[in-house]
Amino acid sequence: MTTLIELISNRFSALFSCFLLSFILFFIKLFTFSVFISFLLASGEKKENKVIKENIGYSVYKRRY
Question: In angstroms, rounded to a whole number, what is the distance separating the alpha carbons of residues 49 and 35?
Answer without folding.
Answer: 21
